[in-house]
Amino acid sequence: MSRATKAGAIRAILVFALLLALPFVFTDHWIVNIAFFGLMFAVLAVAWNLIGGYAGYIWLGSIAFFGLGAYALAITFQHVPLTSGYLPFFALIPIGIAIGIVSIPLALLLLRVRAATFAVVSLAVLFVAEIFAFNLDGLTGGPQGLGMALPPFVVTTFERPFYLAMLVLLAAVMFCSWYLAKSKFGLMLFAIKGDEDRARGLGVRTTTVKVIAFALCCGFTGMAGGLWAYYITWIYPQFAMDPNTMFAIILMTYLGGKGTLWGPVLGAFLLAPAKEYFAYTLGGSAFYLIAYAALFLLVMFFLPRGVVPTVADFLARHRRRAAVLASGPRPAGEQVA
Amino acid sequence: MRSHRFAWAIIGILAVAGSACSSSSTSTTGSKSPVVVGISLSLTGDFSDSGKTEQQGYQLWQSVQNAKGGMLGRQIQLKIVDDASSPDTAVSNYQNLITRDKVDLVFGPFSTLLTAPSALVAARYGYAFPDPADGAPKTLNEHLQNFFLMQPAGPLDTGLTWTRYILSLPADQRPKSVAYISLDDPFLVPAVALDRTAFTAAGIKNVYDNIYPTENVQMTPLVAAIAAAQPDMVVAGTMEADSFDMVKAMVTEKFNPKYLFFMNGASDSANFPTNVGKQNIEGIFSALGWYPEEKTPGNAEFVAEYIKKYGGDASQISADTAEAYTIGQVITEVVEKVGAIDNAKIIQQLHSSYWPSIQGSLAWDADGKPVGTLLLVEWIGGKLEVVYPATDATHAPVVPKPNWP
Amino acid sequence: MHLLIYGCILGILLGGVYGLMASGLALVWGIMRVLNIAQAVCVILGSYLAFTAFTVLHVDPMLAVLPISVVMFVFGVGIYYAFLRPIRRDRESLSILVTYAIAIGIEGALGLIYTTSLQHTGTSYATQSFEVGGFQIPTVELYAFLISVAILGLLALMLQRTRLGRALRAATQNPTAARLLGVDIDRVSAVGFGIGISTAAAAGAVYGMIYSFNPNSHYDLIGILLAIVVLGGFGSMRGAIVAALILGVIASVVFIYWPLWANLSFFGVVVVVLLFRPQGLWGVPNWATQ
Question: CATH homologous superfamily of domain B157-288+375-388?
Answer without folding.
Answer: Response regulator (3.40.50.2300)
